[in-house]
Amino acid sequence: MHRMRTLAVGLAVATCLGSGAMALAPTALASVARPAGTGSFHSWRAAQRAAGFGLLRPSYTAGLRQTGAISVDRCQAAGKLSKRSVFAGYGSFLARWLSIQQDNAGGGCGNFGEARVLGHYRVQGRRATMFGVCGKHLGPPCSSRKITLYLTWNKHGNYYVAGSHNERRHALVAFARGLYPV
């Protein structure tokens, strides 16, 4: 009698656990089969898996440490919501700051606002354009070090924006030229 009762309870527990596992199985399999696509990551390799395209990581950061995690998000440009945008920052915006934003939309997923063209450079074998938030009606003079700079270029359908604040122009160009594949 005791043996039958133990067997019945065991079968009931196994059935409950089995049906609970079966109910969760599609969710578990879906999460394993496909990456989430967005989130914050502490490694470039994990961010690349989530983004779904090849990323470039910096080799030169002018002695600045990474601030926070690497962020992977959906592109916010109209018609490009299925694309991904990846952002990583180094240093502090209040002092010295460098950043890299890259997306697979072929163009910008955002807009850094009004800025002046300050020159053109060669980065990753492509022509890059440097913009500065400086000059009349925008901020400090363009010769000042305390301005925000952006260096933009396209390569293989990916769009890159290297940014800096309170850094010299050559430091931003060196940062961008020092990017290498993950």
Beta-strand portion reads 35-45%
Count of strand segments: 10
Unreliably modeled segments: 1-34
| Mean of pLDDT | 83
Rg, Å, rounded: 24 Å
CATH architecture of the largest domain: Sandwich
Please report the number of helical segments: 3
**Widest sheet, order of strands:** 1-3-4-5-9-8-7-6
For the structure shown, list the relevant keywords:
182 residues, alpha+beta, Jelly Rolls, 2 domains, eight-stranded antiparallel beta sheet, globular, disordered N terminus
Question: How do the helices and strands line up, and which of them pair or pack?
Answer:
Elements: H1 2-33, E1 39-41, H2 44-51, E2 56-58, E3 66-74, E4 84-91, E5 97-103, E6 116-123, E7 126-133, E8 148-155, E9 158-165, H3 169-177, E10 179-181
Antiparallel strand pairs: 1-3, 2-10, 3-4, 4-5, 5-9, 6-7, 7-8, 8-9
Characterise this structure.
It is a single chain. This protein is an alpha+beta fold. It folds into 2 domains: 1-34; 39-181, Jelly Rolls. 27% of the residues lie in helices and 36% in strands. The protein contains 3 helices and 10 strands, in the order H-E-H-E-E-E-E-E-E-E-E-H-E. It has helices at residues 2-33, 44-51, 169-177; strands at residues 39-41, 56-58, 66-74, 84-91, 97-103, 116-123, 126-133, 148-155, 158-165, 179-181. The strands form 2 sheets. The chain has an 8-stranded antiparallel sheet, covered by helices on one side. It has a two-stranded antiparallel sheet with strand order 2-10. Strand 8 (148-155) and strand 9 (158-165) form a beta hairpin. Residues 1-34 have low confidence and may be disordered.
